[in-house]
C-alpha cells in the first residue's frame, strides 16, 4: 500500500519505565521509517554532544525569538534552561513520509496534540507500580528521597493517562519495541489517514459504473 | 500483559475484495485467539452444513421470536430468508476473552456499532477499483451485467467507508492477514480498554507514596 504522510507519535512514560531504551532500539531496527525529533535547548552542550544531532543548541535570545515566532510545538523551562520542540523539523520529516517520534512528558504531549490533532500518544509503563519501584531502587544511584519523589511524580503523571491512545507495558524489551512499532505502523491504515486513497477508489468506481 | 476482555471486530468489504479468504486464513493461524460469529438463518441447510457450525438454523417463528426478544445484534431479510447475529453467542465469546469477528455488510456493521460502541470496524478493499473489476471478471462465473451490478454496489458501499476505523488493502493475502491480526491485537493496548489496569496502577502508586 502506498504510504501516506508520516505520523507524529508522542511517547511518554514514567521515569524508570524504559522508554529511552525502547526508542533507541526502535531507531536502530527501523532507521529508514522513523525520525526522532530533536529538541532545541539553551543549556550548554556537554562533551560529545553535537548541534543538530543530540540537540539544537540555541542562545536564550534565539530561543525566545522562536517562542515569539510560534516556531516551537511546545517548550518548557527547567532549572533555568529552555527546552522545546522545533516545529519546522517535525513538519519537514512528516512531509517526507517519516514517522516522527517525540519523547516528552505529559504537559508537552497535550500541547503537541493541540497543534497536531492526529498525533498518536503512547504511554509506556512497567508491568506494575511494584516493578517501577524496584527498578528505581535497583539502579542503586538514587537516595530513597529521590525514589519517593519519582513515585509521587509517577502518580501525578498517571492522572493524565486517559489522554493517551495506547498503553505499552514494558515487561520484555523486544516485545515492547515490537508493540510500539506495530501500533505506529498500523496507524497508517486508519480510514481517517487514507482520505486520498478512498476518494481515488470512489472516482474509479464511478468511472466504471458510468460506462 | 494480562489480556482484557475480547474485542468485537466487524469485517466488511467489497464483494471480490477477498475478505472471506482473509478470515479463513486468520482463523486457521490463530484459532485460540478468535471466534468467528455464527449467524442465525431461516434458510434451509445445504448439504454438509451443520447447525451451530456454519449457521444456527431457525424456523421463521423462532427467528421472529429472537427479533421480539432483542436477541440479535443485527438482522436483515434477503431473498425471503432472515439472516442475523445472535447476541448471546457474541457476548459469551467476548466474556471468555475471545476476539469475536463478524463478517457483515455495511448496514449491519453500523447496527453493530450502535449496540457495541467499542466494536472495531475494518473495511477490506483490493488495491484499486481496476483490480476489483478484474477479479470479478477473472472469476469467469459472472455475466458482465452481474459484474456491473457488483461495481455499482461497491460504489454504494464505499459511501459508508468513513464510518470504519481501518482500511485493509488486500494485495498480498499473507500481508493482509497479518495486518488484520496486528490491528485487532494492538487494539488491546488502547488506553480506553485498560481502565482496570490503570486504576490498579494508580492505587499501587498511592500506596507507595503514602508510606
Question: How many helix segments of chain A?
Answer: 8
Anisotropy-based shape of chain A: globular
In CATH terms, what is the architecture of the domain at 8-37 and 99-210 in chain A? Answer: 3-Layer(aba) Sandwich
Bin the strand percentage of chain A.
15-25%
Widest β-sheet, arrangement of strands of chain A: 2-7-1-8-9
Largest two-chain interface: A-B, 44 and 44 residues
Residue share in helix of chain A: 40-55%
Q: Could you give a short account of the major beta sheet of chain A?
A: 5 strands, parallel
Mean pLDDT over the residues of chain A: 91
Report on the structure:
The structure is a homodimer of 211-residue chains. In chain A, the strands form two sheets. Chain A has a five-stranded parallel beta sheet with strand order 2-7-1-8-9, with helices on both faces. Chain A has a four-stranded mixed beta sheet with strand order 4-3-6-5. Chain A is globular and about 75 Å long. In chain A, helix 1 crosses helix 7 (173-187) and helix 5 runs antiparallel to helix 6 (144-158). The longest helix of chain A is centred in the last third of the chain and has 16 residues, at 195-210. In chain A, a hairpin with a 2-residue loop joins strand 5 and strand 6 (81-86). The first copy, chain A, contains eight helices and nine strands. With 211 residues, the first copy, chain A, is an alpha/beta fold. Chain A has helices at 19-29, 60-68, 87-95, 106-115, 129-138, 144-158, 173-187, 195-210; strands at 8-13, 34-36, 39-41, 55-57, 72-78, 81-86, 99-103, 120-125, 166-169. Chain A has a domain at 8-37 and 99-210: Rossmann fold (3-Layer(aba) Sandwich). The interface between A and B is large, with 44 and 44 residues.
